[in-house]
Amino acid sequence: MRRKWTWIVRAALFGVLACVLLCLGMGAVKAPNREMRPGLRRLMEASTDEERVTVRRGLQINYTEQDWSLDEREQMDFLLTPALLVQEAISDGIILTYPEE
Amino acid sequence: MRQTHTSRRRLWVAVALAALSTAGGIGLCQIQPSGQKAGLIQFDVISELNMLTPSGPTLPNRVVFARYWVCEDYYAAAVVRAEPYEDLRTLIVLSDKTGFRIDDEDHHEYVPVNTTYPKPLGERGPIPVRTVLGSTPSFVAKTRFAEAEAASRRVYASDLGPAKSLKSGANGVVDVNVPKGTGGITRKLAHLKVRAKDDRIESMELFDSQERQLGTMRYEYEREGNTAQLTKLIADWSARPVKLGVDVNEAGSPKSVIDYVSHKGGRTSTVTYRNVTVGDRVLRLPVQVEVCRSDDKRLLRSAKLMTFKRVDLDKAGVWRAARTFAGLSSEDLALERLRDKYLEAPPRKRRPLQVDPNDVALARRLIAKYPVPDVSKPSRPGREARMKRVVPGTDPNVEMQQRRTRAEAGRQESAQWQDDIRASREQAAKTPAPKQMMVEPGDARAIRERIARYGDMLLPPPLTEQEKAKLDSQGSVHRTSNPTESEQEIKELRRKLGRILDYHRIPHLPEDKPKAVEPNELDLKHICQLQSHYEKLAMQQDRGLGGQLRALGALAQLDGILHDYDAFEGHTVRYLQMIRDAGLVPMHMVGGFEHIRHLVKAGQYDKANKLIKPWADRSGAENDADAIFRFADMQGYGPALSWASMQIIDRLLKRPGLSPVQRYEALALRAINLDRIDGFLADPEASNSGRLATDPEAGRNESRAVSQWILSTTTRTGISRMVEPAVRQAVSAWEALGPARLSEAKPYSTENMSPRAKNEMEVPDATRLQETSAQLDKIVRQRFGQKGAATGPRQTKQPAPTRQ
Q1: Which of A51, A42, A47, A50 is nearest to B399 (CA)?
Q2: Cβ contact (<8 Å) for A98 and B269?
Q3: Burial, B521: exposed, middle or buried (Cβ in 10 Å; 0-12, 13-18, 19+)?
Q4: Considering only B98-112, B352-366, B415-429, B622-636, which range has the smallest mean pLDDT?
Q5: Interchain contact B176–A (C-beta under 8 A)
Q6: By residue range, what is the domain housing residue B743?
Q7: Which among B368, B376, B342 has a CA at the least distance from the CA of B516?
Q8: Tens digit of pLDDT for each residue in B148-174?
């Protein structure tokens, strides 16, 4: 009789443990990804107001447009490069270098 | 007495040192590579500017034809032709010691490019952010700083004065501290490390005053007789921090400045030098310039310098020569008038509005009569999060806790918003799309009139006198006004009415048809005179290739006015021959397509088909694969480009030596273009819906012409049958890539991500190949029944094309 109760208690304990593990597992699967986005993390970790403003502003910027702008600057500056290269080549006392866009 | 003696001795020592230093400097002027005085030299340059920005729309390469006049004291440049955009044509620059003069007749109303900037020019300041293609003039105006920046890094032979070991043939590196600039010249260059041998500099590192490297120069020489001649100058530049101006107002002042990185990937510039006979002298001059990214060696831009000659002009004469060469002549202005009159004739005047534009009830009735699929997104929340303000100056721990609470609230609201969007999309997917209808003519008129009227009503009020004064003094005006309920209602009605035009079919309205304008007798006579004028210019070799192409372009426009397509075809063949002879292979592809498209729009399908075969053969055989893929990926050219690029890709695929990745990209683009053409042929007018709303007749005519052109050589069924095998072939090529299919060619798109989301998640931009894979993935899902969310960074672990 005692042995029977021991088995019942053990089975119940095992069942509870299994349920707990199952719930924890499901919770891990179902729980939304609470990891903070890296950009927001930088915003939160900013130590001064100034830094925070800079980070916030940086998060709103369309960097594709920035890359376009820098490309455009280089391309337009390149239009002067032939003139600057030839000017160095026909001027006395200048070591030839690349003017850089 | 003793003190006076000492100071005299000091003075003598200083004079002697100065003399020695000058003598050393003069002696070192012979060191290679250094310049040699010559007079005024004129030469022509063809610059190819490749648009390789990693993200954003693919744009065609630009080719700029310009003439330069250069001497030791000043230089001038005049752009005579630019393709495919004409936004740089007529640009003239003259720079001397006193100022930088810039002029552009095509943009004569724009002050920054029609003025003289006195020197010294000062600092460049933050670089403006370019958002549209038409903003080129503001960048052109800022080129003035390029010259000042180059001068600040310039190395003079006298800078190498103390490096006496250069003359003694030592092989070691010589450290030279560069003297500061005098007479208002700012020198960024402060320190040089020179490696020299036998009076020749082999390499040179340039540093600023804080020992930051400005760049490295390497020199290659060839021996000609007893002397070594410079053949190549190779300059390396690394990425560097830069200030960018954001939200630039009309006055050119940015509202805020951000730190960013310029010259990503580094730059390697190679200049090739050759002996050139100029007048009675032989000079060592640059003949070619190439600038590549240092990391992946992709060519960013190049310039070919040619037809050098000595000219005898003073500065005023150079300016006149530049104006004559690149400016607009009386014939050019006459051609512009004719073009406006005959090629860009405005549509007929619309009928006057028959109903009250303020009758909102009618607008509502129209919206109810023509239902459209609901694509509205739930509005973004954020009020709750914003309400949780952080109180500055409190305990740092409390402040941090407040920030965490606020961020958590924002995150929850954002998650809720995403759920709402998802739910609304699911709901929209379940709801059957309303049937597309033909809008009744009266309704179409009423809708268009209301859209125009509501647009006027929503315009912001004009600036007050106080605001104007503030704009003048501060460069910006901040206007905050919350839209009233009535304004919001008008805005919403306008949006919904616009959706009707986008979704439903619009009837042909008589007022949309442009008046068919034929040249009158007087204009015909004028056109004949212009034809003979431009014919002469097109033959003149001394105008350079750019000048000849500009004259050919004018002749083609006159052909268009006269509807003389035989002559247009002849001029196109001549144009293609000239650019092929000049070795401008990518320009042959882009410029040739523009001409063929013009013939298609005019309904000249036979002529277009006759030209497309040799054009595609040459483009497919002579362009590198990357240039072809970029051409096929260009935006804004519609199905005509899809059809034309398919012809080139078919030829590219026959070329031996393609890598597996190149072969896959070619097959993927072929499948994508076929899918687009198939969709377009199913309903040509719907495929051009965006244009139909703004310029209905032009959009409809172009769509009709392109579909008829495609169907002149094939059938709709034929295209439909080709799509699925093409998609399967592309998917097989993707699977055969091995590990590259989940890295280099993984289906991954950032095209539809908002900048904020991209920045918050710090996701890398998708490459062109990854975007192509994502498009192929979408087609696979649509065609083979793979349902799921659109491919994006979150789906990158799912190689969708394998799951057919």
Answers
A1: A47
A2: yes
A3: exposed
A4: B352-366
A5: no
A6: 737-804
A7: B342
A8: 889 889 998 888 875 555 654 555 788
Cα–Cα distance list, B549 to B343, B388, B534, B610 (Å): 20, 64, 10, 22
- CA torsion through residues B388, B392, B395, B396, sign: positive
On whether the CB atoms of residues B239 and B226 are closer than 8 A, the answer is no
pLDDT, residue B598, reads 92
pLDDT tens by residue, B197-231: 877 899 999 999 888 999 999 999 998 777 889 99
- Work out the mean pLDDT of chain A and round it to a whole number: 79
**Residue B802 resides in a domain:** yes
DSSP per residue, B44-79 = EEEEEE----SSS-B-PPEEEEEEEEE-SS-EEEEE
pLDDT of the residue at B40: 95
Question: What is d(CA B95, CA B147) in angstroms, rounded to the nearest whole number?
Answer: 9
Calpha distance B591→B547 (Å, rounded): 16
Q: Quick check: ipTM above 0.90? A: no
Secondary structure tally for chain B: helices H, strands E: 25, 18
Q: Classify residue B776: in a domain, yes or no.
A: yes
B668 lies in a domain? no
Write down the pTM of the prediction: 0.76
What is the C-alpha separation between B642 and B650, in angstroms, rounded?
A: 12
Tokens representing residue A8 in the block: 């019942």
Contacts of residue B134, defined as CB under 8 A and 6 or more positions apart, other chains included, come to B87
Classify residue B799: in a domain, yes or no: yes
- Candidates A37, A67, A75; nearest CB to B55: A67
- B200-207/B127-128 β-pairing: unpaired
B253 touches chain A (CB under 8 A): no
Which chain B residues contact residue A44 at CB under 8 A? 403-404, 407
Q: Reduce the DSSP state of residue B104 to 3 states and report it.
A: strand
Taking contacts as CB-CB distances below 8 angstroms, the residues of chain A near B140 are 76
What's the CA gap between B136 and B140, in Å, rounded?
6
Among A46, A65, A78, smallest CA distance to B247 is for A65
Within an 8 Å CB–CB cutoff, is residue B291 touching chain A? yes
Phi, psi of B489 (to 5 degrees): -65, -45
Q: How many domains does chain B have?
A: 1
Of A62, A92, A100, the CB nearest to B755: A62
